[in-house]
């Protein structure tokens, strides 16, 4: 039976290595610092929610609220199941399988390449210079047949942010050639760097947003695509009829109230204080080789003997994210900034490892 199923399946899917999310990798512990989630629990009420009827495909109230939040017309906004669905929708609209390509800049969020692989779309990988800068000469040489460029900004896993001049440069070069997607999943941690204003200047610019990170709503899977109305119309043609369940819509509406947005910004400030506290220790630790500059709620750290440190912490229930699978990130571990208590727990464990 198993052989007959594999015979019927696409061979590339049979041999596909699945994306490893933080939850799928596993790890049981009291300190989960591996998924860049907000470490504090948000309480929202979903009483008296009617679930015997299908939800709106594009919930008008949620879009209107988000429109106010980003100061953008409702016609330029699409709601999806997190940013991941939007990444996929864009490939389905703009890329012809086994002909067209996307472009990414390693190291970066690997879901771009994984979705492309699933759809038979080539991924042209252009490594960043020193893990932080775009290699424009190589980009120009390899842009042939590239329909979409994905830029994670701030970047995951490094935490750095490409300067606006670099974004404008690549947008200017790709006019009429390529869709440029800027993934702003972590932008609330550095809002001064947001580029929504560029949507009026470049019709081929797409910005991805989410409620999973700073809003602390990873569990409701709510993302937003901000783009020219013609792109939104195309995406609307192929999105599933009911992408968000009623409870998620209900919670999103509560999270986008002005008072809730104010609370979100306050939580971001608290998390930044925890990050500064954690960085003070890491900079002094003899376990650490290098710390990447981060504009986000996580820190990428190059350790001495990273595997041993990762394994010891894992065994103690302190779950981090190993990044050594990336050729340019050997000995690197990504640490999500947790609560003050979680940061203290991590620091104490690292001190003990250092003494041993």
Keywords:
38% helix, seven-stranded mixed sheet, 2 domains, Aspartate Aminotransferase, domain 1, four-stranded antiparallel sheet, 13 helices, 356 residues, Aspartate Aminotransferase, domain 2, alpha/beta, globular
Explain how this protein is built:
This protein is of the alpha/beta class and 356 residues long. It folds into two domains: 2-41 and 260-355, Aspartate Aminotransferase, domain 1, CATH 3.90.1150.10; 60-257, Aspartate Aminotransferase, domain 2 (3-Layer(aba) Sandwich), CATH 3.40.640. It is 38% helix and 16% strand. The strands form three sheets. Strands 2-8-7-6-5-3-4 form a seven-stranded mixed sheet, sandwiched between helices. Strands 9-10-13-12 form a four-stranded antiparallel sheet. The protein has a two-stranded parallel ribbon with strand order 1-11. It is globular, with a radius of gyration of 21 Å. The N and C termini lie far apart (52 Å).
Helix and strand layout, with pairings?
Layout: H1 2-8, H2 11-14, H3 22-25, E1 31-32, H4 60-70, E2 77-80, H5 82-94, E3 101-104, H6 111-118, E4 122-125, H7 136-141, E5 146-152, H8 164-173, E6 179-183, E7 205-210, E8 223-227, H9 229-238, H10 246-255, H11 258-284, E9 288-291, E10 298-303, H12 306-315, E11 318-319, E12 321-322, E13 332-336, H13 340-355
Parallel strand pairs: 1-11, 3-4, 3-5, 5-6, 6-7
Antiparallel strand pairs: 2-8, 7-8, 9-10, 10-13, 12-13
Helix pairs in contact: 5-6, 11-13
């Amino acid at each position: 039976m198993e052989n007959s199923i594999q015979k019927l399946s696409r061979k590339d899917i049979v041999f596909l290595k699945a994306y490893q999310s933080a939850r799928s990798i596993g790890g049981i512990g009291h300190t989960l610092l591996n998924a860049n989630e907000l470490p504090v629990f948000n309480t929202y009420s979903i009483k008296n929610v009617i679930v015997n009827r299908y939800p709106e495909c594009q919930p008008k109230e949620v879009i209107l609220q988000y429109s106010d939040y980003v100061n953008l017309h409702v016609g330029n906004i699409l709601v999806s199941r997190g940013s991941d669905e939007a990444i996929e929708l864009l490939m389905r609209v703009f890329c012809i399988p086994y002909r067209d390509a996307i472009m990414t800049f390693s190291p970066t969020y690997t879901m771009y390449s994984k979705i492309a692989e699933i759809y038979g779309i080539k991924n042209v990988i252009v490594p960043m210079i020193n893990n932080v800068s775009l290699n424009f000469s190589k980009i120009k040489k390899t842009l042939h047949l590239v329909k979409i460029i994905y830029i994670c900004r701030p970047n995951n896993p490094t935490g750095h942010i490409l300067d606006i001049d670099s974004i404008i440069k690549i947008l200017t070069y790709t006019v009429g050639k390529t869709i440029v997607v800027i993934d702003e999943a972590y932008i609330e941690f550095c809002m001064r760097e947001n580029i929504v204003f560029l949507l009026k200047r470049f019709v081929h610019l797409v910005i991805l947003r989410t409620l999973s990170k700073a809003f602390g709503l990873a569990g409701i899977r709510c993302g937003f695509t901000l783009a020219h109305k013609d792109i939104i119309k195309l995406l609307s043609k192929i999105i599933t009829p009911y992408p968000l369940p009623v409870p998620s819509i209900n919670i999103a509406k509560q999270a986008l109230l002005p008072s809730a947005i104010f609370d979100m910004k306050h939580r971001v400030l608290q998390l930044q204080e925890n990050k500064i506290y954690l960085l003070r220790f890491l900079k002094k630790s003899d376990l650490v080789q290098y710390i990447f500059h981060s504009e986000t709620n996580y820190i990428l750290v190059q350790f001495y003997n990273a595997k041993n440190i990762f394994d010891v912490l894992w065994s103690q229930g302190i779950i981090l994210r190993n990044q050594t699978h990336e050729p340019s990130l050997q000995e690197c571990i990504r640490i999500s900034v947790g609560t003050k208590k979680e940061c203290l727990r991590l620091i104490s464990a690292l001190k003990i490892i250092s003494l041993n």
